[in-house]
Amino acid sequence: MGIVLGDNQYGKAEVRVVRLDRDGERHAVTDLNVSTTLSGDLADTHLTGANDKVLATDTQKNTVFAFARDGIGEIEDFGLRLARHFVATQPSIHRARVAIERFPWARLDVGGVPAAHSFARSAEGTRLAVVHHDGERSWVTGGIRDLTVLNSTDSEFWGFPRDRYTTLAETKDRILATAVAASWRFGRTEDVDWAGAYTTARAALLTAFADTYSYSLQQTLYAMGARVLEHVPEIVEVRLSLPNKHHFLSDLSAFGLDNPDEVYYAADRPYGLIEGTVLRDDAPEPGLAWS
Amino acid sequence: MGIVLGDNQYGKAEVRVVRLDRDGERHAVTDLNVSTTLSGDLADTHLTGANDKVLATDTQKNTVFAFARDGIGEIEDFGLRLARHFVATQPSIHRARVAIERFPWARLDVGGVPAAHSFARSAEGTRLAVVHHDGERSWVTGGIRDLTVLNSTDSEFWGFPRDRYTTLAETKDRILATAVAASWRFGRTEDVDWAGAYTTARAALLTAFADTYSYSLQQTLYAMGARVLEHVPEIVEVRLSLPNKHHFLSDLSAFGLDNPDEVYYAADRPYGLIEGTVLRDDAPEPGLAWS
Amino acid sequence: MGIVLGDNQYGKAEVRVVRLDRDGERHAVTDLNVSTTLSGDLADTHLTGANDKVLATDTQKNTVFAFARDGIGEIEDFGLRLARHFVATQPSIHRARVAIERFPWARLDVGGVPAAHSFARSAEGTRLAVVHHDGERSWVTGGIRDLTVLNSTDSEFWGFPRDRYTTLAETKDRILATAVAASWRFGRTEDVDWAGAYTTARAALLTAFADTYSYSLQQTLYAMGARVLEHVPEIVEVRLSLPNKHHFLSDLSAFGLDNPDEVYYAADRPYGLIEGTVLRDDAPEPGLAWS
Amino acid sequence: MGIVLGDNQYGKAEVRVVRLDRDGERHAVTDLNVSTTLSGDLADTHLTGANDKVLATDTQKNTVFAFARDGIGEIEDFGLRLARHFVATQPSIHRARVAIERFPWARLDVGGVPAAHSFARSAEGTRLAVVHHDGERSWVTGGIRDLTVLNSTDSEFWGFPRDRYTTLAETKDRILATAVAASWRFGRTEDVDWAGAYTTARAALLTAFADTYSYSLQQTLYAMGARVLEHVPEIVEVRLSLPNKHHFLSDLSAFGLDNPDEVYYAADRPYGLIEGTVLRDDAPEPGLAWS
Q1: b/e sequence C119-143, b meaning 16+ C-beta within 10 Å
Q2: Which domain holds residue D27?
Q3: CATH code of the domain covering residue D171
Q4: Among the options B27, B45, B53, B57, which is catalytic?
Q5: ipTM of this predicted complex?
Q6: On the CB side of D225, how many CA atoms lie within 13 Å of its CA?
Q7: Active site (annotated) includes residue A57
Q8: What phi and psi values does residue D59 have, to the nearest 5 degrees?
């Protein structure tokens, strides 16, 4: 019996790079959180502490800032450039993963006119991209998080099994609220309109959430994933993680009051957590996409 | 020498009440975090544990939900109703403080039409109100937080004193970013258009941030406070707390690259913190307003 | 009617300085979060943007690191040195406030021996100091936070008034849990054994929490504050803020089970919040101590 | 081309159950955060909203509280009981995952005596268990998080490759600090001394961290994993995720000061992140253990 090194990786997490693009007076802001992760021929540093194959995480950070000098563009492309660079230039690095969060900013409105160089953080959701590259192939997923939504009606929940431990009442009208966390896998990495895919996928998620008359959050989840696939042909698979942000009807009867579905208590914990995948039946194999 | 009880207060913090208002198909959401704090003749419970003068914090919570049954309206009014109730009905309670946060929701847009009962959390800022009542008088402050803004130019910082420990370079062009936290004191509590005051004050803060050519964050702070006073006559004093969310220009020279004010590092800690008050020279005494 | 500048201050928040002291092989770690706040003749920067009286917050940060070079010692002393430096060297600065958090580390135990230079973060609580200096006088408060405690019995709560909105049952046995946040004011700033005062005050808080048979959290609060005053003569006033971390007995009757005070649900929000002051009847005026 | 449902699961997250065990006056506290996740024949609820196969997450929560009535014991056992119950009693549920966090409490010391029923949250780390059960087999992993450690010397980092973007200086003496997050896979689920395994694994991690003279955090990681395997025969694989909590030596030269490895700046972001697996060369297949 011996002890051996298994899978391993390392990198620099949460590099907060902000880039300004200037078109005369009119500026644009790109605000990112970039995490790079490398793996490959790294047994030496684990077993002996020899670091000649370890591209320092500080160097990875520097590379992010240096690459931003030439422009960032869409985060999926920026991730591809970075991932391919690390694998191409470091013989010991056989695989790179670059995860990027893009925080949303909206132009401030000043006197009815969009400001040229003033911005406010918006609630449009944080745009996500994760890129893998193994020296030959690349895989890209996009996504979104920090998008909190609520339907104040058109949600029921009933017909579930009742065992010894079931006390939940059935309901024909409840609040349905969640914080959307979605990732989508692209079937290819060339000739994709990354920005258009993001905008369309985001709109599909919101529209499906709003217009699905729901008998379970699972049903809403499936509708949301399917809607993305219907509208974005380059996307082949969608993964959703939806916390059920419970709003419990407040029982006011002790105070001699009724409560006709008006007053709710918004709970923190525990919460339901619904997770699911919706995909095309001819989706290519995921490869490293979700690693 | 003896040991005595000094100032004290107690209450229920962070009651998360959500109310739906229904106008046929069209719903509205009011999403609050309410904290009640009472003080008065409370020596007994501290000194002997006798609780006959202690309105239970659980009862305070129940009262918040019960009062929401009749409608919430503007948070300043809801706070006044609650604060006056506690003092009026509990002989031992001589003063109440009700602090309310209102989380912003925006109607979802579905196919170009605002949804009747679907919403998304927005980034318009969390609206705040703090109400004090002492049995005779009431005081109200409003406010906002969670409003993050950035100017990508029109900000300089130079001319500051240089002592032994000063290394900061002067700059004629920098990013200026902050998360606005503002409170404003109303000069009266009757006949105030609370919603209008909030909307106007918020717009004044944003506009002043955007259109002030800034030589220091202090200057911007003063401009923001003054702008609120200029546009909302009922407000007599504004307090602002503005973290300077530093964006440092990345030094790319080691990589043979220049950086013409394009690539920045967004720092977490430490950060500058600028706090100041702007008020009318005939503002009435604050009384308990800021307690 | 005019608009004027009111109270204002500025500084650098959350300077994370860590110092090692080496006594041969045996090291000690001092891990601080320092926030400096200055006020004085600062109207110019607010009104015109002229910064010749504004010691840059970057300089304040540098000063913290430079002063750490000569040793930090007790945080109350380090705060006094910094506060006095800023007021003494900057004519425009009339008052300084230095707030310090010290994070606790304990020596790791390796094979039964305390390690010479290996440490783990401990849960002893974060030690606090806030120093004010106005050019002539200084004021010091100490304190602690992040100290979470629980009594599993010896806590009752009953006899409280019952109004229309009261539903809480009386109890003769409940869990009492809180996260202690305490500040204490020293009556003088010279010849104080800061470390001893902290250690004794912390032990007094914990002992009083544990050995007080409690009829209300207010009663426990008072006992904790009084115990500190009884054991630390240099402390003249104690302020406590104690969230009531509710543990609700789980109702298992629907499952045919009793619950003899064994199974609880630990709630997040809302929570009771009990705040109070205990002081000596001959305590000197607080001056700027609590500002 | 069609759209289909892929992998999915659902459950109740973060059930905060606290149990008291009473041995006369002497109490013990078990403080848990339990998350249950079920999967199986769940296509209906996704595709049509029919919920007859969906054990409500509210019922899952109730089950956790009800099962705590008979005692919790070791969290690995509690997880096994819950996971097997859900699969055994719900025909539609083919697999259950139960993840448990146990928060550490230490007995308060009152006058040199360990208190019978007073406790303080400790920093020993949060104990973790994840149990999977598929109706036939069970898999158990244990683990720990929230364990922050620091070596003030005996850490070097040099010999790493230098490319165009490398600026990091080599060092023969640095602070090495991390927040340990570890999971370990047990080779069997019967006849394991769970508590003993946890205690021994935790001690092995800390001892290896302290006594490894380190040339890279990867080397320390491997030493920590191997040490666990050497001391706990039931554990067959260890996964570690170690953020490199950077402490940068402060450059005081601008102030005319040297800095003989004494004054550091503790950075928040970005941070290195080192992840790796150490396992026995005859470890059985992981099956569902890490799912």
Answers
A1: bbbebbbbbbbbbbbbeeebbbbbb
A2: 1-136
A3: 3.10.270.10
A4: B57
A5: 0.97
A6: 34
A7: yes
A8: -65, -40
